[in-house]
Specification:
- With about 625 residues, the chain is of the alpha+beta class.
- Helix content is about 35%, strand content about 30%.
- It is built from 19 helices and 35 strands.
- The strands form nine sheets. Strands 7, 8, 9, 11, 12, 13, 15 and 16 form an eight-stranded antiparallel sheet that branches. Strands 2-3-1-4-5-6 form a six-stranded mixed sheet, with helices on both faces. A six-stranded antiparallel β-barrel has the order 17-22-20-19-23-24.
- It starts with a strand and ends with a strand.
Length: about 625
C-alpha cells in the first residue's frame, strides 16, 4: 500500500514530437491505429509504462495535439499528475500549445516540465530564441518556473535527463487519495475475444480489486470486475493514479461509452445542473452570451448544455472568477471540486474552465442575491472549511485552524464539538474519517503481516509506521493505535503491534512436524541432543527454524538453555520443581547435579537459565532461590 502511482501527460502542438518523445522514453510506440500510422498524427490516447521501482510506478499518456482531437486531449490530461509540455525547436510556440496551456491551467495541473524537442534540426542560438518565446508565454502561469530540458528523440539527446527529472519530481509528490470511494472515468471501451467487455481509464481516486462489485454511472448498471490489468499485466488490485484496464461482467460494449464512470459507491452525484466557478481564456474571439450552447468536458465525458449567468447577459473578458450555472442535456457523474473545460461548439474554441461548486444545483433568480448565495457555497460552510483544512494537514492545533479557516475561536469551538472532529493529545484536532482510514490501513497491514508471518507476535511499531509517517504525523498514528487497543481492535506487546483477534500459530503445513519434534524433545527428558538435530530429524527447513525457535520459546513450549540445548517446557518446569523440593533456600552445583542426575554440559546452562529467568540468584558458589 505504500507504493505510489502516477500518470504523466505529453501535451503540445501537432507534430511537435510528443509520440516520438514518449517512444524514446518508454520504447513503446503509442500510435496503434492504422490511420495514425498513415497520417502520422495521434488520434486516440496512447499509453506506455515509463518507470517502476518499489516506491513508485509512472505511466505516460500521449495526448493528440490536433484541434479536431481536443476531446481526446482533455480526456487524457484530466487524470494526470504532471505534464510534459512539448515544443518543437524548429517551430516554437504554436496555437495548439497555447490552447493546451489554457486547458492545463483550467484543469488544475500544476506540475510541469518543458521539453524543447527536435533540437538537432536547429542551431543553439535558435533554440535559445525558442526558449525565450516559451518563457514569455509561460509568464503569469503556474508553469513559469517549470524546468526546461532540451531533447532530440532520434539521437536520444537529453532523454535520460528528462526521464530522471520526471522520476525525481514525482518522488516528492503525494499520490491521489487511494482511500476514498473508487472512481474511474472511462476513456476507452473495447472487447477481447473470449473475455468480453473491457474498459480502460486512469483511476481518479480509491482502489479496486478483482471480483469487486461496481456500478457504471450514470446508467446505474451493476457489474463485476472479473479481471484487472495494469500495463498489460494481471493485477489483483489497482490504485489511484494507475492506468487500468478492467474486464467487466454482465455488460456489453454497446451499453458503454467514453465518459461513463465506473464507481464503487452510491454516494456520487448524477446530475444535469451544476453550480460552477469559471475563468475564461484571455483572448476570446466571440462573446459568450446568456444561455448560449456550450460543450462541457469533465473527466472523460463530453456533454452539451447551456451556460446560465445570474449577474450579466454576456461575457467577453473577465480576469476574475465567475459564478454561474451549467444546465446539461444529459446526466453526468461528478462531485464538488471536480475540474472541467468549456468549449464553444461552433465556431469551435475553448471558452474557459473551472470547478464544480455544487453538483446539485437548483433554479435561481437572476440577481446579486443568487451570486451571494453561490459565493457562500464557493467558500464553503464553516464545517466544510474546517474539514478541508484538517483533511489537507491531517492534524492541526486550534491556533493553526483559526489561521487556515479564517474563523474566530468561538465559531470554531462550536463546530469542533461535532463528532466528525476529534481532539487528541489534548491539543491537536483531526477528522474521525482520517482516524477510521488510518485504522483500516493499519488493520490491513497487520492482517497481511499475520498471513505471511503467523508465528511472530506482531509488527514492530517503528516498522509499521515507517512509510505511514510520510503522510501522517507520528502522534496521530500513535493515537490511532492506542485508540484501537482500547476498542479491542489491536493488541500491543512491548513494541510489537498485532490484531486483537490474532493468535500466533505454526503454519498449518508444518504443524504435524512441529508436534513430532516437540514430542521427541519431551521424550528425551533432561538429557537432550543438540537442539538443531531435532529440527533436522523432523524435516523442518533452515528458513523456518529461527522463527519457529522464537515462537516455541514465546509460547513456553520450549525453554532454551543456551544456543545448543533446549528443554521441552514441561520437562524444564518439572526439573525446576524437583530441584526446589530437594533443596533449601540455597544450593550448590553439586547438590543440583545429584538431584537432577545431570552432567556439567547440561547443568551449567540449566542453572544460568534459572538465573536469567529470575528464579535464582548466584551468590559466590551458591544459588539462592528468589521468593
Amino acid at each position: 500500500m505504500d507504493k505510489r502511482y502516477f500518470t504523466i501527460g505529453m501535451a503540445g502542438h501537432i507534430d511537435h514530437g510528443k509520440t516520438s518523445l514518449t517512444k524514446a522514453l518508454t520504447n513503446v510506440d503509442t500510435d496503434r491505429l492504422k490511420e495514425e500510422k498513415e497520417r502520422q498524427i495521434s488520434i486516440e490516447l496512447g499509453f506506455a509504462p515509463l518507470y517502476e521501482d518499489q516506491e513508485i510506478q509512472i505511466s505516460v499518456i500521449d495526448v493528440p495535439g490536433h484541434e479536431r482531437f481536443i476531446r481526446q486531449m482533455i480526456a487524457g490530461v484530466a487524470g494526470i499528475d504532471l505534464v510534459v509540455l512539448v515544443v518543437a525547436a524548429d517551430e516554437g510556440v504554436m496555437p495548439q500549445t497555447r490552447e493546451h496551456l489554457d486547458i492545463l491551467k483550467f484543469l488544475g495541473v500544476k506540475n510541469g516540465i518543458i521539453a524543447i524537442t527536435k533540437i538537432d534540426r536547429v542551431d543553439e542560438d535558435f533554440t535559445e530564441l525558442v526558449k525565450d518565446e516559451i518563457l514569455e508565454e509561460l509568464t503569469g502561469t503556474v508553469f513559469e518556473d517549470s524546468p526546461f530540458v532540451l531533447v532530440d528523440s532520434l539521437s536520444k539527446k537529453g532523454i535520460e535527463e528528462i526521464k530522471e527529472l520526471i522520476i525525481q519530481t514525482l518522488r516528492e509528490r503525494e499520490m491521489r487519495d487511494a482511500k476514498g470511494a473508487f472512481r474511474l472515468p472511462i476513456d476507452q471501451v473495447f472487447t477481447v475475444k473470449g473475455q468480453g467487455t473491457v474498459v480502460r481509464g486512469t483511476v481518479y481516486e480509491g482502489s479496486v480489486e478483482e471480483g469487486q462489485l461496481l456500478t457504471i454511472m450514470p446508467q446505474g448498471l451493476e457489474v463485476k470486475a472479473r479481471q484487472i490489468q495494469v500495463h498489460h499485466k494481471s493485477a489483483q488490485k489497482a490504485y489511484a493514479g494507475q492506468r487500468t484496464a478492467i474486464n467487466l461482467s454482465s455488460v456489453s460494449k454497446e451499453d458503454l461509452e467514453r465518459g461513463d464512470v465506473l464507481v464503487s459507491s452510491e454516494h456520487f452525484n448524477v446530475t444535469k445542473t451544476l453550480d460552477v466557478a469559471i475563468h475564461v481564456v484571455d483572448d476570446l474571439d466571440h462573446l459568450v452570451k446568456q444561455r448560449m450552447p456550450v460543450k462541457l468536458h469533465i473527466g472523460t465525458a463530453e456533454v452539451m448544455g447551456r451556460i446560465v449567468f445570474f449577474d450579466r447577459n454576456e461575457l467577453k473578458e473577465e480576469n476574475g472568477e465567475i459564478l454561474c450555472q451549467l444546465r446539461l442535456e444529459e446526466e453526468i457523474l461528478t462531485k464538488r471540486g471536480d475540474r472541467f473545460i468549456l468549449r464553444r461548439p461552433s465556431p469551435q474554441e475553448t471558452i474557459g474552465g473551472g470547478w464544480v461548486i455544487d453538483p446539485r444545483g437548483n433554479k435561481y433568480r437572476f440577481g446579486n442575491q443568487t451570486i451571494d448565495e453561490l459565493e457562500k457555497k464557493r467558500v464553503g460552510s464553516p464545517k466544510e472549511r474546517i474539514t478541508a483544512a484538517l483533511y489537507e494537514a491531517k492534524s492541526l492545533p486550534l491556533n493553526e485552524l483559526i489561521k487556515r479557516t479564517a474563523l474566530d475561536e468561538l465559531t470554531l469551538n462550536e463546530f469542533l464539538e461535532d463528532s466528525e472532529f476529534v481532539l487528541y493529545n489534548g491539543k491537536e484536532f483531526t477528522l474521525q474519517m482520517l482516524i477510521n482510514s488510518i485504522e483500516e490501513d493499519i488493520y490491513d497491514r497487520l492482517h497481511e503481516f499475520h498471513q505471511g508471518y503467523s508465528m511472530k507476535t506482531g509488527v514492530n511499531k517503528a516498522v509499521l509506521f515507517q512509510n505511514m509517517e510520510k503522510r501522517f504525523p507520528k502522534p496521530l498514528l500513535d493515537f490511532v493505535v492506542e485508540n484501537g487497543i482500547s476498542n479491542g481492535v489491536f493488541n500491543r506487546k512491548e513494541q510489537f503491534v498485532s490484531l486483537a483477534s490474532f493468535v500466533p500459530h505454526v503454519p498449518k503445513s508444518w504443524q504435524k512436524r512441529t508436534e513430532n519434534m516437540l514430542e521427541d524433545l519431551r521424550k528425551d527428558g533432561r538429557k537432550v541432543r543438540y537442539y538443531k538435530e531435532y529440527f533436522a530429524a523432523s524435516g523442518i527447513p533452515d528458513s523456518l527454524e529461527a522463527d519457529l525457535r522464537r515462537f516455541l520459546e514465546d509460547q513456553g513450549l520450549v525453554v532454551h538453555l543456551d544456543e545448543q540445548f533446549a528443554y521441552h517446557g514441561e520437562i524444564f518446569n518439572e526439573a525446576v520443581s524437583k530441584l526446589r523440593l530437594g533443596t533449601g533456600e540455597e544450593f550448590e552445583v553439586g547438590d543440583a547435579k545429584d538431584i537432577l542426575d545431570l552432567s556439567r554440559k547440561y547443568m551449567i546452562p540449566f542453572l544460568e537459565r534459572l538465573d536469567s529467568k529470575g528464579l535464582t540468584k548466584r551468590v559466590e558458589n551458591k544459588r539462592v532461590w528468589k521468593k
